[in-house]
């Protein structure tokens, strides 16, 4: 209770100071970053995240409008880079450095950072209102969920042949006319945190996962490093179908007119969390907490759903069979064990025939 009261007092103090300073907003954007707010502000909030700048920009602009005294510096990084940077900074020095909030779709890596002592505790009314699966140890929090789906180019695959389960996808890969030969893509699980999480969860949940991987290999599967990379290939018509993509980015492309369609696998649909931590090394953990609480607030959740396509945390459990979010917690750490990871990657490389 004492910790909660102190957190609340600190947050109120931060908000009061920021409301006193309200200079005109400025915005600067680059390919992998975005800066909002006054250049001379003493309140600098550094955010590192795996969210696409294009998809996340509207949410950050709304936060900036509500907190005009804050200069927000956003950098988009891969999930693996976010993890490595957090560990490296903590090991190099005890000094405060780096981002004040880290948001990643590799919820297993975020959970490992917490488990290994690299995150701060944050307690607020917003974090307390989260369901149990979305808050682990008051140190890592789901800010929204994103179904992992299959996506196909509607001009390259007839509706009658669209697979609705992994078994149907396997049958399509084994069809005599080989409609997906050299025209299917999946995540590079060696370089992508999301890809590794999705693939290991498939192995855990699906007895056909090995057969599906082997069929990918026989059909000359290509690998993508990100959902955006795969969507580019699909939109150009370089491939027909991509396995394990994020729904939110795909919806954004479809809304822009891309000839794509989403498949929600009926056997099970994985739902990952975009999860947030305040690193131990954060120079302005109070500002990181301010942004986190905004993202978890009713307004922030509405903006996330509207601007980024993520599903609000409290609307993430879908009654349809098998569609439910993965819980934050130690269960996500199983395949991060070095021996298990090495074995999984060896099997994956051999199955899909990549060096």
TrEMBL record:
Its Gene Ontology cellular component terms are: outer membrane-bounded periplasmic space
Signal peptide start and end residues: 1-26
Q: Which Pfam families match?
A: SBP_bac_11
Record keyword Signal present: yes
Print the keywords alphabetically. Answer: Signal
Where does the source fall among the domains of life? Bacteria
PANTHER family per record? PHOSPHOGLYCERATE TRANSPORT REGULATORY PROTEIN PGTC, THIAMINE-BINDING PERIPLASMIC PROTEIN-RELATED
Protein's name in the database: ABC transporter substrate-binding protein
State the species of origin. Achromobacter pestifer
The organism's taxonomy opens as: Bacteria, Pseudomonadati, Pseudomonadota, Betaproteobacteria, Burkholderiales
């Amino acid at each position: 209770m004492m910790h909660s009261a102190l957190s609340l007092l600190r947050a109120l103090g931060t908000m009061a100071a920021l409301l006193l300073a309200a200079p005109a907003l400025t915005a600067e954007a680059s390919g992998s970053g975005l800066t909002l707010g006054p250049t001379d502000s003493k309140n600098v909030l550094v955010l590192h995240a795996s969210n696409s700048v294009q998809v996340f920009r509207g949410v950050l602009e709304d936060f900036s409008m509500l907190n005009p005294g804050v200069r927000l510096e956003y950098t988009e990084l891969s999930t693996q880079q976010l993890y490595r940077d957090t560990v490296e900074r903590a090991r190099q020095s005890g000094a405060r450095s780096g981002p004040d909030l880290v948001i990643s779709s590799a919820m297993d890596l975020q959970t490992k950072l917490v488990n290994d002592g690299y995150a701060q505790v944050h307690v607020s009314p917003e974090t307390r209102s989260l369901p149990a699966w979305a808050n682990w140890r008051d140190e890592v929090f789901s800010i929204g969920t994103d179904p992992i789906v299959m996506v196909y180019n509607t001009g390259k695959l007839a509706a009658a042949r669209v697979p609705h389960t992994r078994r149907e996808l396997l049958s399509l890969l084994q069809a005599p006319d080989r409609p997906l030969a050299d025209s299917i893509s999946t995540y590079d699980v060696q370089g992508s945190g999301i890809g590794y999480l999705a693939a290991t969860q498939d192995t855990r949940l699906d007895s056909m996962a090995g057969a599906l991987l082997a069929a990918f290999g026989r059909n000359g599967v290509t690998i993508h490093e990100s959902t955006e990379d795969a969507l580019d290939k699909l939109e150009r018509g370089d491939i027909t179908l991509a396995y394990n993509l994020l729904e939110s980015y795909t919806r954004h492309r479809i809304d822009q007119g891309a000839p794509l369609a989403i498949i929600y696998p009926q056997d099970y649909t994985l739902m990952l969390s975009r999860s947030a931590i305040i690193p131990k090394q954060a120079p302005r953990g109070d500002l990181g907490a301010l942004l986190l609480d905004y993202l978890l607030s009713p307004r922030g959740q509405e903006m996330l759903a509207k601007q980024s396509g993520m599903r609000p945390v409290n609307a993430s459990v879908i009654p349809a069979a098998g569609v439910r979010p993965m819980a934050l917690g130690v269960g996500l750490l199983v395949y991060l064990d070095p021996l298990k990871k090495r074995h999984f990657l060896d099997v994956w490389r051999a199955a899909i025939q990549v060096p």
